[in-house]
Amino acid sequence: xxxxxxxxxxxxxxxxxxxxxxxxxxxxxxxxxxxxxxxxxxxxxxxxxxxxxxxxxxxxxxxxxxxxxxxxxxxxxxxxxxxxxxxxxxxxxxxxxxxxxxxxxxxxxxxxxxxxxxxxxxxxxxxxxxxxxxxxxxxxxxxxxxxxxxxxxxxxxxxxxxxxxxxxxxxxxxxxxxxxxxxxxxxxxxxxxxxxxxxxxxxxxxxxxxxxxxxxxxxxxxxxxxxxxxxxxxxxxxxxxxxxxxxxxxxxxxxxxxxxxxxxxxxxxxxxxxxxxxxxxxxxxxxxxxxxxxxxxxxxxxxxxxxxxxxxxxxxxxxxxxxxxxxxxxxxxxxxxxxxxxxxxxxxxxxxxxxxxxxxxxxxxxxxxxxxxxxxxxxxxxxxxxxxxxxxxxxxxxxxxxxxxxxxxxxxxxx
Length: 415
Description:
By secondary structure, the protein is an alpha/beta fold. Helix content is about 30%, strand content about 20%.
């Protein structure tokens, strides 16, 4: 008997996550052994609430798949729900098992980052313990690029392209006036500095700025930061700084912790922001020149108008390959990219045990940061540049991007 396939998305939005969803749907539609193709609205919470929609009938043309792929954020919605340990709450797992039986689910694909892979790992282990043939596959996404065992993650390339583009535009703006000024650009990145590092890419087109870049992987010192700014001011009237939201002091505290709420999400992560404003006030107090901070915030996650063609193509591909691996009998795995070469840029898809990925982080290589801890070395360019290449056309309406959305009509299983 045919088994049905269920897809869910989780974690933070990206500009490429819907391309992975598209890749899964398109590949699944090619295989007669797969019956219905379902989507869970709002991740694993949607599964528990039976918020399940039918997808195949809503995707009837190549144009619709393309429009889905270039729509940022998550067409199925997301959640921030930590699946408890089996020994602490077996009834939750039993409920999921019951729902999977109701909908005849034989394949489950969870598209997400570190915490989402934790959910996929726990479900895979549960079904394995129950000796049930339900194949669970993790499909990576995160703009943070911090999933281990994979060269990079879908979503990062487009976010990096947006950051590099925005930084180049900020540089042009700051160079208009001939006066002493400091501009601080705050970029996402809790413990890994991949996103802030991508602010270096304007250097590859001849721009001198950003003049200083600070990542969590190098210890941050406020006094040294002020010294760095003063030194650069001797050569440049307009000093531009890129800083990760997660920069830390020598004692491990976040640099702007005094300005943050201290609140945490369901996974225990502190809500971060404010380091740009903190450094802005520090510069104003200790240097006294014109200073402003810019927080890119959620804009870097969902900039569907600045997509990387490489990113969207690879996101679709990794979704499709997840289906092929599952049909070949794989389960409890996450699909990963293995880079073969930078020039020419070549990658292949492989598998990693989800247990080797869940709740773990890959940080930016310290050897790609200069000794002073305030800039990125050229060795990083060969890694970063291939990921932002190519542009992707997108539909518009009234001069604005026109986004795809599913009809959220929940289905009941056929008895």
